[in-house]
Amino acid sequence: xxxxxxxxxxxxxxxxxxxxxEENWQRILAGHTTAATDKALEGLxxxxxxxxxxxxxxxxxxxxxxxxxxxxxxxxLAARQALADAGLEARQWRDESRVAVIIGSxxxxxxxxxxxxxxxxxxxxxEISSLTLPMGLLNMAAGQVAIELGxxxxxLAPCSACASGASALGMAKDLIDRGVCxxxxxxxxxxxxxxxxxxxxARMRALSANPDAATASxxxxxQRNGFVIGEGAGVFxxxxxxxxxxxxxxxxxxxxxxxxxxxxxxxxxxxxxxxxARLAMQGALRDAGIESAEVDYVNAHGTSTPxxxxxxxxxxxEVFGSRMPVSSTKGVTGHLLGAAGAIEAAYTLLALEHGQxxxxxxxxxxxxxxxxxxxxxxxxxxxxxxxxxxxxxxGGQNVSLVFAP
Length: 405
Known about the structure:
The chain folds into two domains: 6-253, Thiolase/Chalcone synthase (Peroxisomal Thiolase, Chain A, domain 1, 3-Layer(aba) Sandwich); 258-404, Thiolase/Chalcone synthase (Peroxisomal Thiolase, Chain A, domain 1), CATH 3.40.47. By secondary structure, it is α/β, with parallel strands linked by helices. It has twelve helices and 16 strands. The relative contact order is 0.19. The strands form three sheets. Strands 1, 2, 5, 6, 7, 8, 9, 10, 11, 13, 15 and 16 form a twelve-stranded mixed sheet that branches. A two-stranded antiparallel ribbon has the order 3-4. It starts with 5 loop residues before the first strand and ends with a strand. Helices cover 33% and strands 19% of the residues.
Protein backbone atom coordinates (compact mmCIF):
# COMPACT_ATOMS: atom_id res chain seq x y z
CA UNK A 1 0.00 0.00 0.00
CA UNK A 2 1.07 3.62 -0.45
CA UNK A 3 2.31 5.74 2.45
CA UNK A 4 -0.97 7.68 2.62
CA UNK A 5 -3.11 4.56 3.00
CA UNK A 6 -3.71 5.02 6.75
CA UNK A 7 -6.12 7.74 7.82
CA UNK A 8 -7.20 8.96 11.25
CA UNK A 9 -10.98 9.17 11.46
CA UNK A 10 -11.44 9.55 15.21
CA UNK A 11 -9.63 10.89 18.28
CA UNK A 12 -10.49 10.52 21.98
CA UNK A 13 -8.64 12.34 24.76
CA UNK A 14 -8.86 12.00 28.54
CA UNK A 15 -5.98 14.04 29.96
CA UNK A 16 -5.11 16.59 32.62
CA UNK A 17 -5.93 19.21 29.96
CA UNK A 18 -9.53 18.01 29.89
CA UNK A 19 -11.96 15.36 28.70
CA UNK A 20 -12.55 15.59 24.97
CA UNK A 21 -10.60 16.96 22.02
CA GLU A 22 -11.85 20.55 22.05
CA GLU A 23 -11.22 21.09 25.76
CA ASN A 24 -7.75 19.64 25.40
CA TRP A 25 -6.83 21.76 22.40
CA GLN A 26 -7.93 25.03 23.99
CA ARG A 27 -5.92 24.31 27.14
CA ILE A 28 -2.86 23.35 25.10
CA LEU A 29 -3.05 26.53 23.02
CA ALA A 30 -3.49 28.63 26.15
CA GLY A 31 -0.34 27.08 27.62
CA HIS A 32 -1.83 26.85 31.11
CA THR A 33 -0.23 24.14 33.22
CA THR A 34 -2.40 21.55 34.96
CA ALA A 35 0.14 20.68 37.66
CA ALA A 36 -1.05 21.01 41.25
CA THR A 37 -0.30 19.77 44.73
CA ASP A 38 -1.92 16.34 45.06
CA LYS A 39 -3.40 15.36 48.44
CA ALA A 40 -2.96 11.67 47.63
CA LEU A 41 0.81 12.22 47.59
CA GLU A 42 0.99 13.88 50.99
CA GLY A 43 4.11 12.83 52.87
CA LEU A 44 5.96 11.62 49.75
CA UNK A 45 9.18 13.17 48.42
CA UNK A 46 7.27 14.85 45.56
CA UNK A 47 3.67 15.99 45.97
CA UNK A 48 2.92 17.57 42.58
CA UNK A 49 1.00 15.81 39.79
CA UNK A 50 -1.25 16.41 36.79
CA UNK A 51 -4.65 14.75 37.31
CA UNK A 52 -7.52 14.29 34.86
CA UNK A 53 -10.06 16.94 36.00
CA UNK A 54 -13.63 16.08 36.92
CA UNK A 55 -13.24 12.39 36.10
CA UNK A 56 -16.16 10.36 37.42
CA UNK A 57 -16.67 6.66 36.78
CA UNK A 58 -20.34 7.49 36.12
CA UNK A 59 -19.14 8.80 32.74
CA UNK A 60 -18.47 5.19 31.77
CA UNK A 61 -21.96 3.86 32.42
CA UNK A 62 -20.51 0.57 33.64
CA UNK A 63 -22.47 -1.66 35.98
CA UNK A 64 -19.37 -2.38 38.08
CA UNK A 65 -16.75 0.30 37.34
CA UNK A 66 -14.80 -0.72 40.43
CA UNK A 67 -13.80 -3.88 38.53
CA UNK A 68 -11.72 -1.75 36.17
CA UNK A 69 -8.39 -0.20 37.12
CA UNK A 70 -8.25 3.57 36.59
CA UNK A 71 -5.96 3.26 33.55
CA UNK A 72 -8.47 0.96 31.82
CA UNK A 73 -11.30 3.34 32.67
CA UNK A 74 -9.41 6.14 30.94
CA UNK A 75 -8.80 3.92 27.92
CA UNK A 76 -12.47 2.98 27.59
CA LEU A 77 -13.69 6.57 27.79
CA ALA A 78 -11.13 7.73 25.21
CA ALA A 79 -11.99 4.81 22.92
CA ARG A 80 -15.69 5.65 23.07
CA GLN A 81 -14.91 9.28 22.20
CA ALA A 82 -12.72 8.20 19.28
CA LEU A 83 -15.42 5.88 17.94
CA ALA A 84 -18.06 8.61 18.16
CA ASP A 85 -15.71 11.06 16.44
CA ALA A 86 -15.20 8.52 13.65
CA GLY A 87 -18.94 7.98 13.23
CA LEU A 88 -18.70 4.31 14.21
CA GLU A 89 -20.64 2.21 16.70
CA ALA A 90 -19.36 -0.56 18.92
CA ARG A 91 -20.27 -4.06 17.72
CA GLN A 92 -21.62 -2.73 14.42
CA TRP A 93 -18.74 -4.00 12.28
CA ARG A 94 -18.93 -5.31 8.74
CA ASP A 95 -16.25 -7.85 9.71
CA GLU A 96 -15.24 -7.83 13.37
CA SER A 97 -12.21 -10.03 12.62
CA ARG A 98 -10.69 -7.09 10.72
CA VAL A 99 -11.00 -4.68 13.64
CA ALA A 100 -8.01 -4.54 16.00
CA VAL A 101 -7.38 -2.94 19.38
CA ILE A 102 -3.89 -1.84 20.44
CA ILE A 103 -3.60 0.01 23.75
CA GLY A 104 -0.10 0.60 25.08
CA SER A 105 0.86 1.32 28.68
CA UNK A 106 4.06 1.63 30.63
CA UNK A 107 2.66 0.63 34.02
CA UNK A 108 -0.76 -0.98 33.56
CA UNK A 109 -2.98 -1.31 36.61
CA UNK A 110 -0.39 -0.17 39.12
CA UNK A 111 -2.93 1.28 41.56
CA UNK A 112 -4.70 -2.08 41.79
CA UNK A 113 -1.44 -3.96 42.29
CA UNK A 114 -0.21 -1.57 44.98
CA UNK A 115 -3.50 -1.69 46.85
CA UNK A 116 -3.67 -5.47 46.75
CA UNK A 117 -0.06 -5.85 47.83
CA UNK A 118 -0.74 -3.61 50.83
CA UNK A 119 -3.75 -5.82 51.63
CA UNK A 120 -1.58 -8.93 51.37
CA UNK A 121 0.86 -7.52 53.90
CA UNK A 122 -1.77 -6.25 56.32
CA UNK A 123 -4.54 -8.87 56.08
CA UNK A 124 -3.02 -11.96 54.47
CA UNK A 125 -3.38 -13.88 51.22
CA UNK A 126 -7.03 -14.86 51.79
CA GLU A 127 -8.10 -11.20 51.52
CA ILE A 128 -6.61 -10.58 48.10
CA SER A 129 -9.23 -9.79 45.45
CA SER A 130 -9.82 -12.41 42.78
CA LEU A 131 -9.91 -9.48 40.34
CA THR A 132 -6.33 -8.43 41.06
CA LEU A 133 -4.91 -9.78 37.81
CA PRO A 134 -7.90 -9.02 35.54
CA MET A 135 -7.60 -5.43 36.75
CA GLY A 136 -3.86 -5.06 37.11
CA LEU A 137 -2.28 -6.76 34.12
CA LEU A 138 -0.68 -4.58 31.48
CA ASN A 139 -2.88 -5.92 28.66
CA MET A 140 -6.22 -5.42 30.36
CA ALA A 141 -7.06 -1.98 28.97
CA ALA A 142 -6.68 -3.44 25.47
CA GLY A 143 -8.65 -6.54 26.43
CA GLN A 144 -11.47 -4.61 28.05
CA VAL A 145 -11.76 -2.19 25.12
CA ALA A 146 -11.85 -5.08 22.64
CA ILE A 147 -14.64 -6.74 24.64
CA GLU A 148 -16.56 -3.46 24.82
CA LEU A 149 -16.24 -2.86 21.06
CA GLY A 150 -16.71 -6.45 19.92
CA UNK A 151 -13.42 -6.25 18.02
CA UNK A 152 -12.13 -9.73 17.15
CA UNK A 153 -8.96 -8.83 15.25
CA UNK A 154 -5.51 -8.63 16.87
CA UNK A 155 -5.61 -7.34 20.45
CA LEU A 156 -2.21 -6.06 21.53
CA ALA A 157 -0.69 -4.13 24.43
CA PRO A 158 2.77 -2.78 23.60
CA CYS A 159 4.95 -1.75 26.52
CA SER A 160 7.84 0.47 25.47
CA ALA A 161 7.75 2.71 28.56
CA CYS A 162 6.99 6.32 27.58
CA ALA A 163 6.87 5.38 23.89
CA SER A 164 4.06 2.83 24.40
CA GLY A 165 1.19 4.91 23.02
CA ALA A 166 3.22 5.90 19.97
CA SER A 167 4.26 2.26 19.49
CA ALA A 168 0.56 1.32 19.44
CA LEU A 169 -0.12 3.80 16.63
CA GLY A 170 2.86 2.54 14.64
CA MET A 171 1.77 -1.07 15.07
CA ALA A 172 -1.72 -0.07 13.94
CA LYS A 173 -0.27 1.43 10.78
CA ASP A 174 1.60 -1.81 10.10
CA LEU A 175 -1.57 -3.91 10.46
CA ILE A 176 -3.45 -1.70 8.02
CA ASP A 177 -0.56 -1.44 5.55
CA ARG A 178 -0.22 -5.24 5.52
CA GLY A 179 -3.92 -5.63 4.78
CA VAL A 180 -4.63 -7.48 8.03
CA CYS A 181 -7.15 -4.93 9.34
CA UNK A 182 -9.54 -2.29 8.03
CA UNK A 183 -9.92 -0.52 11.38
CA UNK A 184 -7.59 -0.26 14.37
CA UNK A 185 -8.50 1.39 17.67
CA UNK A 186 -5.10 2.35 19.05
CA UNK A 187 -3.47 4.52 21.68
CA UNK A 188 -2.12 4.58 25.20
CA UNK A 189 -3.42 4.75 28.77
CA UNK A 190 -1.77 5.36 32.12
CA UNK A 191 -2.76 6.00 35.74
CA UNK A 192 0.60 6.09 37.56
CA UNK A 193 -0.05 8.71 40.25
CA UNK A 194 0.48 6.21 43.05
CA UNK A 195 2.79 6.13 46.08
CA UNK A 196 5.11 3.51 44.62
CA UNK A 197 5.51 5.08 41.19
CA UNK A 198 5.90 8.63 42.45
CA UNK A 199 8.38 7.58 45.14
CA UNK A 200 10.37 5.48 42.66
CA UNK A 201 10.64 8.32 40.14
CA ALA A 202 11.53 10.72 42.95
CA ARG A 203 14.32 8.40 44.13
CA MET A 204 15.69 8.49 40.58
CA ARG A 205 15.58 12.30 40.69
CA ALA A 206 13.47 12.22 37.54
CA LEU A 207 10.62 14.31 39.00
CA SER A 208 10.76 18.07 39.34
CA ALA A 209 11.82 19.26 42.78
CA ASN A 210 10.32 22.67 42.10
CA PRO A 211 7.94 23.48 44.99
CA ASP A 212 5.92 25.78 42.73
CA ALA A 213 3.49 23.54 40.84
CA ALA A 214 2.68 26.27 38.33
CA THR A 215 6.22 26.27 36.91
CA ALA A 216 7.41 22.76 37.75
CA SER A 217 7.02 21.32 34.24
CA UNK A 218 9.09 23.56 31.95
CA UNK A 219 10.55 21.78 28.93
CA UNK A 220 13.70 23.27 27.38
CA UNK A 221 14.02 25.88 30.14
CA UNK A 222 17.47 26.45 31.61
CA GLN A 223 15.99 25.98 35.12
CA ARG A 224 14.17 22.71 34.43
CA ASN A 225 14.90 19.96 36.93
CA GLY A 226 12.57 17.07 36.12
CA PHE A 227 9.11 16.14 34.89
CA VAL A 228 5.69 16.24 36.58
CA ILE A 229 3.85 12.93 36.52
CA GLY A 230 0.45 12.82 34.86
CA GLU A 231 -2.38 10.43 33.96
CA GLY A 232 -4.86 9.85 31.16
CA ALA A 233 -5.42 8.23 27.79
CA GLY A 234 -5.36 9.04 24.11
CA VAL A 235 -7.04 6.76 21.56
CA PHE A 236 -7.26 6.96 17.76
CA UNK A 237 -9.44 5.26 15.21
CA UNK A 238 -7.24 4.49 12.21
CA UNK A 239 -8.58 3.04 8.97
CA UNK A 240 -7.38 2.13 5.54
CA UNK A 241 -8.13 5.00 3.19
CA UNK A 242 -10.29 2.66 1.09
CA UNK A 243 -12.39 1.59 4.09
CA UNK A 244 -12.88 5.16 5.27
CA UNK A 245 -13.78 6.30 1.75
CA UNK A 246 -16.28 3.48 1.27
CA UNK A 247 -18.27 4.54 4.31
CA UNK A 248 -17.95 8.28 3.60
CA UNK A 249 -15.90 8.97 6.72
CA UNK A 250 -14.15 12.26 7.40
CA UNK A 251 -10.37 12.04 7.62
CA UNK A 252 -8.70 14.08 10.36
CA UNK A 253 -5.31 13.39 8.81
CA UNK A 254 -2.97 10.69 7.60
CA UNK A 255 -0.37 8.68 9.47
CA UNK A 256 2.37 8.65 6.86
CA UNK A 257 5.35 7.21 8.67
CA UNK A 258 6.44 5.17 11.69
CA UNK A 259 10.01 4.80 12.85
CA UNK A 260 11.30 2.90 15.89
CA UNK A 261 14.76 2.32 17.32
CA UNK A 262 16.73 1.39 20.41
CA UNK A 263 19.52 3.43 21.95
CA UNK A 264 21.23 0.20 23.11
CA UNK A 265 23.01 2.45 25.58
CA UNK A 266 21.50 2.75 29.08
CA UNK A 267 18.21 1.89 30.80
CA UNK A 268 17.37 5.47 31.80
CA UNK A 269 19.88 7.85 30.18
CA UNK A 270 19.46 8.72 26.50
CA UNK A 271 22.31 8.11 24.10
CA UNK A 272 24.55 11.18 24.54
CA UNK A 273 24.65 11.86 20.78
CA UNK A 274 20.92 11.17 20.38
CA UNK A 275 21.65 8.24 18.09
CA UNK A 276 18.43 6.34 18.82
CA ALA A 277 16.28 9.46 18.52
CA ARG A 278 17.88 10.27 15.19
CA LEU A 279 17.36 6.73 13.89
CA ALA A 280 13.67 6.80 14.84
CA MET A 281 13.07 10.12 13.09
CA GLN A 282 14.96 9.02 9.99
CA GLY A 283 13.06 5.74 9.96
CA ALA A 284 9.73 7.56 10.12
CA LEU A 285 10.76 9.77 7.19
CA ARG A 286 11.78 6.73 5.14
CA ASP A 287 8.51 4.98 5.92
CA ALA A 288 6.62 8.11 4.87
CA GLY A 289 8.67 8.39 1.67
CA ILE A 290 9.54 12.04 2.31
CA GLU A 291 12.63 14.19 2.89
CA SER A 292 13.39 16.03 6.12
CA ALA A 293 12.90 19.39 4.35
CA GLU A 294 9.21 18.56 3.90
CA VAL A 295 8.52 18.54 7.66
CA ASP A 296 7.19 21.83 9.07
CA TYR A 297 6.93 21.11 12.81
CA VAL A 298 8.18 18.68 15.45
CA ASN A 299 6.19 17.92 18.59
CA ALA A 300 9.04 16.93 20.88
CA HIS A 301 9.11 14.33 23.60
CA GLY A 302 10.37 17.30 25.66
CA THR A 303 10.13 15.90 29.17
CA SER A 304 11.55 18.86 31.12
CA THR A 305 14.46 16.72 32.31
CA PRO A 306 18.04 17.98 31.97
CA UNK A 307 19.17 15.02 29.84
CA UNK A 308 16.33 14.47 27.38
CA UNK A 309 15.71 18.03 26.26
CA UNK A 310 19.29 18.79 25.19
CA UNK A 311 19.90 15.42 23.53
CA UNK A 312 16.55 15.42 21.71
CA UNK A 313 16.90 18.99 20.46
CA UNK A 314 20.36 18.23 19.09
CA UNK A 315 19.02 15.15 17.29
CA UNK A 316 16.16 17.21 15.83
CA UNK A 317 18.63 19.87 14.64
CA GLU A 318 20.81 17.21 13.02
CA VAL A 319 17.89 15.72 11.10
CA PHE A 320 15.90 18.87 10.27
CA GLY A 321 18.21 21.84 10.88
CA SER A 322 18.21 24.43 13.65
CA ARG A 323 15.34 26.45 12.13
CA MET A 324 12.81 23.66 12.72
CA PRO A 325 9.88 24.87 14.91
CA VAL A 326 9.68 22.66 18.00
CA SER A 327 7.46 22.60 21.07
CA SER A 328 6.56 20.29 23.93
CA THR A 329 3.06 20.09 25.36
CA LYS A 330 4.28 18.52 28.61
CA GLY A 331 4.44 21.98 30.16
CA VAL A 332 0.63 21.76 30.24
CA THR A 333 -0.12 18.09 30.82
CA GLY A 334 2.96 16.84 32.61
CA HIS A 335 4.37 13.50 31.51
CA LEU A 336 1.74 10.80 31.00
CA LEU A 337 4.33 8.05 30.53
CA GLY A 338 2.86 5.26 28.35
CA ALA A 339 -0.09 7.44 27.29
CA ALA A 340 2.06 10.43 26.29
CA GLY A 341 2.90 9.30 22.76
CA ALA A 342 -0.72 8.87 21.66
CA ILE A 343 -1.90 12.08 23.32
CA GLU A 344 0.92 14.13 21.83
CA ALA A 345 0.29 12.54 18.43
CA ALA A 346 -3.25 13.88 18.73
CA TYR A 347 -1.94 17.37 19.52
CA THR A 348 0.34 17.09 16.48
CA LEU A 349 -2.64 16.25 14.26
CA LEU A 350 -4.63 19.13 15.75
CA ALA A 351 -1.74 21.49 14.97
CA LEU A 352 -1.95 20.37 11.34
CA GLU A 353 -5.73 20.66 11.32
CA HIS A 354 -5.79 24.20 12.74
CA GLY A 355 -2.53 25.59 11.34
CA GLN A 356 -1.34 26.45 14.84
CA UNK A 357 1.81 25.33 16.63
CA UNK A 358 1.16 24.92 20.36
CA UNK A 359 3.49 26.81 22.70
CA UNK A 360 5.80 25.23 25.26
CA UNK A 361 4.24 26.25 28.57
CA UNK A 362 6.49 27.71 31.30
CA UNK A 363 9.43 28.21 28.92
CA UNK A 364 10.85 31.50 30.19
CA UNK A 365 14.63 31.15 29.85
CA UNK A 366 15.58 28.75 27.04
CA UNK A 367 18.59 26.55 27.69
CA UNK A 368 21.43 28.01 25.56
CA UNK A 369 22.45 24.47 24.59
CA UNK A 370 19.18 24.08 22.66
CA UNK A 371 19.47 25.49 19.15
CA UNK A 372 16.15 24.62 17.47
CA UNK A 373 13.37 27.19 17.00
CA UNK A 374 11.37 26.80 20.23
CA UNK A 375 7.71 27.81 20.07
CA UNK A 376 6.91 29.61 23.33
CA UNK A 377 4.74 32.26 24.96
CA UNK A 378 1.86 31.91 22.48
CA UNK A 379 0.65 29.65 19.65
CA UNK A 380 2.27 30.29 16.30
CA UNK A 381 0.05 30.44 13.24
CA UNK A 382 1.57 29.01 10.10
CA UNK A 383 0.67 26.58 7.32
CA UNK A 384 1.73 23.02 8.20
CA UNK A 385 1.79 20.29 5.59
CA UNK A 386 3.75 17.64 7.50
CA UNK A 387 4.54 17.23 11.21
CA UNK A 388 6.47 14.71 13.29
CA UNK A 389 5.86 13.56 16.87
CA UNK A 390 8.60 12.05 19.06
CA UNK A 391 8.23 9.65 21.99
CA UNK A 392 11.14 8.11 23.89
CA UNK A 393 11.13 5.69 26.82
CA UNK A 394 13.27 4.11 29.50
CA GLY A 395 15.21 1.21 28.09
CA GLY A 396 16.26 3.45 25.21
CA GLN A 397 13.09 2.78 23.19
CA ASN A 398 12.26 5.45 20.63
CA VAL A 399 9.31 6.05 18.30
CA SER A 400 8.65 8.81 15.78
CA LEU A 401 5.43 9.31 13.83
CA VAL A 402 4.87 11.45 10.72
CA PHE A 403 1.45 13.00 10.06
CA ALA A 404 -0.06 15.01 7.23
CA PRO A 405 -3.55 16.49 6.64
